[in-house]
């Protein structure tokens, strides 16, 4: 795993994974665009999550809810009144900080969560917390900063036209609980998954794509009868760990489980566990698993007046379902995968090669086709078009063969097929493996089967 985030960012830009947003206009702070390789791996990751948690799980279905919802959704959920961060500003250098992050940087063990704003201000003053940027102790008063992006719907701006970009995808699932349950004739337990954009006006975004104001979430809301004896929290905890270790290939040494203390739990949570990953900038939350109880369905039932109960058939009794929520940000998980894959190796000849050791299901391309020399271009391009039928393939004829190998290593292509001078005679090609650099001759007629075996 790389310990140099700047080196990783430079590599991802050079290779076409991630670009600075609005770069030709000087950029936009904390805005990132995904290039051809970035959008490919991002889509592969989302498809992998969807397959594992939704389409291949017999308990679950999926939806795609609106980004802009009725403002009453956010009033009932508590976002309008409580979705805030505490902001403090250094009067000397005018740097702004989240109060919790400022305190955690000074004393990670200090229990700040239950303190009032005046108590937090007293602590910062009495302990003489320094500004991380300039070292001074001259801070402003603490104020609340809303994380909701506000906009207007319609032709006339007014209080009635105010709407918000969703800060999470979960509420779109909760308000559609009854629609999904009724239309799909689902019985408890069942889950509803969703992948989509969310927006948070973060005070201190940063660390590349780790914390951004515009991001994607992959969330599952799993509904079950409170009297169900199965420990669904442990079930989904194991499912998340299996996905991290076996599907996206994270080294278990690089992530850990952190049980959130009861005093620090969100108001809606009965229990929360964070899967934390060891990023180059330290241990940070990667994936959250929350037991939300009946908070959300109760809130929306009370706020809307709609009946969001479930008729339990064996007892013919209406109940409110409890909820377990595994939630992960696409970009955070993608950054962990990039950190895990980015590898620098010293070769026997003293040269260094950079390899993105991506899992085959995530790599932007599964196979690359290269002609050895320009004389093989026609035959190699025909082979490439044939492979496109069944594989995510790419074709490269620019530069000498060694440089082309290195280029494919650097973007993470698992297998390279080289069409050489002998191929027209023996009807075989050379297949090179990314991680070991080993090569073997394979008959073109058997190439499809060979590639499937490894991919």
UniProtKB/TrEMBL annotation:
Where in the cell is the protein located? Cytoplasm
Q: Name one Pfam family in it.
A: HGTP_anticodon
EC category: ligase
| Residues annotated as binding ATP | 200-202, 210-215, 285-286, 329-332
PANTHER family per record: DNA POLYMERASE SUBUNIT GAMMA-2, MITOCHONDRIAL, GLYCYL-TRNA SYNTHETASE/DNA POLYMERASE SUBUNIT GAMMA-2
UniProt-listed NCBIfam families: glyS_dimeric, PRK04173.1
Q: Tell me what this protein is called.
A: Glycine--tRNA ligase
Gene behind this chain?
glyS
């Amino acid at each position: 795993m790389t310990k140099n985030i700047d080196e990783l960012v430079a590599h991802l830009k050079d290779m076409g994974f991630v670009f600075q947003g609005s770069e030709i206009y000087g950029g936009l702070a904390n805005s990132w665009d995904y290039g051809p390789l970035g959008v490919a791996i991002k889509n592969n990751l989302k498809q992998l999550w969807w397959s594992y948690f939704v389409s291949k799980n017999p308990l679950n279905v999926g939806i795609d809810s609106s980004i802009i919802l009725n403002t009453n959704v956010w009033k009932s959920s508590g976002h309008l009144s409580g979705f805030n961060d505490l902001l403090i500003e250094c009067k000397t250098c005018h740097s702004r900080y989240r109060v919790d992050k400022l305190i955690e940087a000074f004393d990670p063990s200090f229990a700040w969560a239950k303190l009032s704003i005046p108590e937090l201000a007293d602590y910062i003053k009495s302990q003489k917390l320094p500004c991380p940027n300039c070292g001074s102790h001259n801070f402003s008063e603490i104020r609340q900063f809303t994380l909701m992006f506000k906009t207007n719907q319609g032709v006339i701006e007014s209080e009635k036209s105010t709407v918000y970009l969703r800060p999470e995808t979960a509420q779109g699932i909760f308000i559609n609980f009854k629609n999904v349950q009724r239309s799909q004739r689902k019985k408890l337990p069942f889950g509803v998954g969703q992948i989509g954009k969310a927006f948070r006006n973060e005070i201190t975004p940063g660390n590349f794509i780790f914390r951004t104001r515009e991001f994607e979430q992959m969330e599952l809301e799993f509904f079950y009868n409170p009297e169900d004896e199965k420990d669904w929290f442990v079930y989904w905890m194991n499912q998340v760990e299996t996905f991290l270790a076996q599907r996206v290939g994270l080294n278990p040494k690089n992530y850990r489980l952190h049980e959130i203390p009861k005093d620090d739990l969100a108001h809606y949570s009965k229990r929360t566990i964070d899967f934390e990953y060891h990023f180059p900038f330290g241990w940070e939350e990667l994936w959250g698993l929350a037991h939300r109880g009946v908070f959300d369905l109760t809130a929306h039932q009370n706020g809307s007046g709609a009946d969001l109960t479930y008729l339990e058939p064996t007892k013919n009794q209406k109940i409110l379902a409890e909820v377990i929520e595994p939630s992960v940000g696409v970009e955070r998980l993608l950054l962990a995968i990039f950190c895990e894959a980015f590898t620098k190796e010293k070769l026997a000849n003293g040269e260094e090669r950079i390899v993105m050791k991506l899992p085959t299901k995530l790599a932007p391309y599964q196979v690359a086709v290269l002609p050895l020399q320009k004389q093989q271009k026609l035959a190699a391009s025909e082979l490439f078009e044939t492979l496109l039928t069944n594989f995510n393939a790419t074709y490269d004829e620019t530069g000498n063969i060694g440089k082309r190998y290195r280029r494919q290593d650097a973007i993470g292509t698992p297998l390279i097929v080289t069409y050489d001078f002998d191929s027209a005679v023996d009807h075989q090609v050379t297949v090179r493996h990314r991680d070991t650099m080993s090569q073997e001759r394979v008959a073109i007629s058997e190439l499809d089967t060979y590639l499937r075996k490894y991919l």
